[in-house]
Amino acid sequence: MRIIIVGGGIVGNSLAEYLLNDNHHLSLIELDPQLCQSISEKFDMQVINGSGSSPSVLNEAGISSADMILAVTPNNEVNILSCAIAAQYNVPRRIARLRGREFLSNAHLLDLEKLGVTSVIHPERVLVDQILQFVETPHAVQSANFESGKILMRGYVVTKDMPIAGKTPREIRLEIAPDIILFAAIVRNRVGMIPDGNTKIEAGDIVYTLFPRKSLDRFLSLIGYEKKNRKIIITGDAYSTLELAQAFESLDYHVTFVDPSLEHAHEAAASFENLEVLHGDCTEEDLLQELNVDKASFFIAVSDSPDYNVLSALLAKAEDALVFITTTTDMSHNKLYKNIGIDHVINPRLTTAREILEIISRGHISAVVKLSNVDIEAVRLTVEPNSEIAGKKIKDISVKMQKGTMIGVIIRENRMILPDGETTLEAKDHVIVITHDKNLHAITKLFKPKSFFKRS
């Protein structure tokens, strides 16, 4: 597939890395010449210095033969215009990254499809979804959703008090039937493995599970978590905080929203009826004490300032809040943040890239989630009608599957299926495969039409 990426920042870089690994032909357009040089040295693809809103630049990138354009610059207008030009060249898929309230809250006032945009990614909404994942499954070390949130993947450190400790996946499966929970991977002593039904889960393991949303309560019971009314403190002055506050307003939590900006705080207070809204600075210890932050289940810092987010979270930690979620666009100190006790550090740009990959995957490109820091990945693939495996039973294709690979779950007509050797893979099935990094290319090839790699 021929794909043009407009924008070479963190989002564009992440997309390029994944899509090149999936054997696609890429061209990337970036306005900053130094960034162009850096990308050229990193990736083997065409990199063009220029604007994605320029017809001549898009022509140089191969717009006339492109199958997809991904417009992911920080500039909304450039992204929309890039898609509009691509539409005139009949590029089938045109995805734009659009930031801010204007396009998110007033979608009914503007038909973006008429401007050439076939799919829209709103970074603020993606960020809110990521934060909600960690709130609904507290203490998860990793979180990802598939199929628009219908299938959940969660990673947890197993403690000796958890109901799953000392049991095998087969024992747990019998215990929880008819609920479906797949134990997809285990990291033990920093080594990743794909378990079978007889693998005993031990305290200290990091266990990765896949399950449908309807099995969420059962999953929480397996990790020993009891639902209860929770106190949540949100701070920040970014538009994302308003989106986050709105998401929490309809849920059964006690939420306090602290805004450093007086103007922004007035706007928030006028927007929400069920939230406590305060104007203040959470880097001030007196305010945190007044908020009774020691009673908070979650402290969430989502301002545009990474320094404010990290400092306020550290001060909240000193006051004994329980779980901390912050955002930053600088991941160079990610390990340091973890070591000083910040539970979840989210890069909004990386979450945006992952969401774009999930949307693309509905067009039969794999979406990849790397598990922890080991060589195991969860890959979402679609069975193509003319692929080697369409219409065949899993037991009949096992010889073609690479060692250390598990067909985890099948999503067929919005149903999640836990397959066995007798299960037949049907065309258009969505399949989540757990495999080692080195196997990814060979596994992906099995799901594609036989002519795919020749075309690429």
- The tally of structural domains comes to 4
Report the mean per-residue pLDDT as an integer.
86
Any guess at the CATH architecture of the largest domain? 3-Layer(aba) Sandwich
Net shape? globular
Walk me through this protein's architecture.
- It is a single chain.
- The chain is of the alpha/beta class and 456 residues long.
- The protein has 4 domains: 2-121, 3-Layer(aba) Sandwich (Rossmann fold); 127-222, Regulator of K+ conductance, C-terminal domain (Alpha-Beta Plaits, 2-Layer Sandwich), CATH 3.30.70.1450; 230-349, NAD(P)-binding Rossmann-like Domain (Rossmann fold, 3-Layer(aba) Sandwich), CATH 3.40.50; 352-455, Regulator of K+ conductance, C-terminal domain (Alpha-Beta Plaits, 2-Layer Sandwich), CATH 3.30.70.
- Helix content is 33%, strand content 25%.
- The strands form 4 sheets. The chain has a 6-stranded parallel β-sheet, sandwiched between helices.
- Helix 5 (101-105) links the parallel strand 5 and strand 6 (119-121).
- Helix 1 packs parallel to helix 14.
- It is globular.
- The chain starts with a strand and ends with a helix.
- The mean pLDDT is 86.
